[in-house]
Amino acid sequence: MSFFQDLRDLLTLERVSHVGPHQYEAHSGQHDGHSTSGPVMWARTESSELVNPDGNIFNAEENLIETRVRKELPAYIPEGVRVVELGPGTFTAFNKKTLLIIHALKSTTCTIVDKSHAFLKSIYDSKALLGIENLEQVEDDFFQPSRCYHDNDDEALVTLLGSTLGNMLGPLRDKLPEAALVNALQNVANATRKGWLLVSIDTDQNGERVQAYYKKQEEFQLNIFDRLIAAGLVDKRFKREAIEYDTEWRSSSGQLGHMAVIKRKLKFALAGMEVVLRKGQRLHLKNSFKFKPEFFEKCCNLAGLELVKVWSDDSTTQIWLLKKKPLSAQLIVEQRPRYQPQRELRTALAA
């Protein structure tokens, strides 16, 4: 779906929890006199977290990879295996996490998949510096079903770091998201025909702490509205200052909903279509699910994934290594073909 289609659906309440990938895209939008382009805002968030070691996902995950995962992973994964990285993020994140894994496995081939053209290009342009001989890039939403980026019989390692799995789609709910998580795990595992999945999750169930963590990211979470204005998709009646960021925590499901709250009535034209948003209306932007380990393991098994190893420490971050079971042993959760290798159109980022 395009940026306009997704934002139209959000503002007209057609769909919820689906605009997260657009937050990372580059644009010319501004707020309070400074750029709110997705990569700029995320790099600022990343830099802020890296100098604040207390209770943040960035440092916890990097510490686990640096001290344990990169040293122990070669005992489970063959040398030279292709790495398929879903959501590599910024150059800094890739350099401090995925690159350590690539070097530990002595891999020379890597496929990076991200919705952000800017993130992909920054990594691709530095491939010589990173020491990767063959770097392939795909601009795509890997959460969508039937995405396969390595569809031959060679085993590969799929990596999904940054607790990105917690951003899976879905409405606000009170019940554990078993079917949604199983489907999300199947979708990302199917990025390769055979091999392993290395995924990080956040297990934090402290609602106050989780909400406080994300509330520091208000400008990043709302930058899509600055992009709407910069792209001329709304008329002058649309007021960015009438929208504020809030979070909604559901302890029973471990769901943190990212919300855009309308502070006063807004009536404006969206590409010629009249839209009315009432005061107090809450637009559900995306999710950050926090998974209890026992629930996560159950869903991995239902998704046809065998647990190989879990790395954890005294933080709430865990990194799981999972092995794909033979297709005959996997449970089909939805009545749809659950494995359809599909080559996505590669984006020429070198130009």
Report the structural category: alpha/beta
Instruction: Give the strand tally.
Output: 14
List the strand order in the largest sheet. 5-4-3-6-7-14-13
C-alpha Rg, in Å?
A: 20 Å
- What series of H and E elements makes up the topology? HEEHHEHEHHEEHEHHHEEEEEHEE
Shape summary: globular
- Overall helicity: 25-40%
Instruction: Count up the domains.
Output: 2
Q: Which architecture of the largest domain per CATH?
A: 3-Layer(aba) Sandwich
State the CATH topology of the largest domain: Rossmann fold
Counted by DSSP, the helix tally is 11
Largest sheet: 7 strands, mixed
Which band does the percent of strand residues land in?
15-25%
CATH class assignment of the largest domain? Alpha Beta
Question: What is the secondary structure topology, with strand pairs?
Answer:
Blueprint: H1 3-11, E1 30-31, E2 34-35, H2 38-50, H3 57-72, E3 82-86, H4 91-104, E4 109-114, H5 117-124, H6 127-130, E5 134-139, E6 156-160, H7 178-189, E7 195-202, H8 207-214, H9 218-221, H10 223-230, E8 243-250, E9 255-262, E10 266-270, E11 273-277, E12 282-289, H11 293-302, E13 305-312, E14 317-324
Helix pairs in contact: 3-4, 7-11
Describe this structure in words.
It is a single chain. This protein is an alpha/beta fold. It has 2 domains: 3-36 and 209-289, no CATH class; 55-203 and 291-329, 3-Layer(aba) Sandwich (Rossmann fold). It contains 11 helices and 14 strands. The chain has a 7-stranded mixed sheet, with helices on both faces. It has a 3-stranded antiparallel sheet with strand order 8-9-12. A hairpin with a 2-residue loop joins strand 10 (266-270) and strand 11 (273-277). The longest helix is centred in the N-terminal third of the chain and has 16 residues, at 57-72. The chain is globular.
